[in-house]
Design a protein that fits this description.
Length: 200
């Protein structure tokens, strides 16, 4: 029987290239939107570290490349652009910044395990992952709710519904892949909460 031809370089590294492109675009957007020098520096540092980790990742042991997985990834990343912000809500903006910094910390902690699509690499269980299995998603969900508190209007309710739903389904698809690893199943038993301790 003939052996299957090896994957092309592009096919093996497509996920890394896609995630690198997204991180650079998002980093540039954050840098251009930043008002303070320290904020600009933060965007540069975080983007550089994330891109470095992505470029040195090994291929995943397994990965879900289904259309559904792509849809939920796209919705979770893009929905925030459609919120209508309240310019006067200084407290909400400060809280959103704090949430973003914590979420960035989660992504930095993942290191080479960071991924767009549901994928199984090294299982990480430290930092905020000791309390919940998807802390970054939990922080993004709180951010969506803050947009509603700052400006509770129909458009924002719809965008928040789409965003929160996409994180729930994205976590579901990720855990289906991750649970192939006995270490992750053990982690699930020890860490019952997905997003918010004591809530969900």
């Amino acid at each position: 029987m003939d052996e299957a031809p090896p994957d092309s370089w592009f096919k093996r590294h497509f996920g890394n290239l896609l995630l690198t492109t997204y991180l650079i675009v998002e980093g540039c957007r954050g840098y251009l939107d930043a008002d303070e020098v320290w904020d600009q520096a933060w965007w540069i540092i975080v983007t550089a570290v994330l891109v470095f980790n992505v470029l040195r990742r090994l291929p995943p042991y397994s990965e879900d490349r289904s259309l559904k997985a792509w849809i939920f990834v796209f919705l979770s990343l893009s929905h925030i652009m459609f919120f209508e912000e309240s310019e006067g809500a200084v407290t909400a903006r400060f809280m959103l910044l704090a949430l973003l910094l914590l979420a960035d910390g989660c992504l930095l902690y993942l290191g080479r395990s960071i991924s767009l699509l549901p994928a199984r690499r090294e299982i990480k269980t430290g930092f905020l992952y000791r309390a919940v299995r998807h802390p970054a998603y939990g922080l993004y969900i709180i951010g969506d709710l803050l947009y509603l508190v700052a400006k509770p209007q129909p458009r924002n309710f719809l965008v928040a519904f789409i965003g929160i739903g996409s994180f729930v389904f994205r976590a579901h698809y990720e855990e289906r892949v991750l649970a192939e690893d006995p270490a992750y199943r053990e982690y699930q038993e020890k860490t019952p909460w997905r997003f918010l301790p004591g809530i969900y």
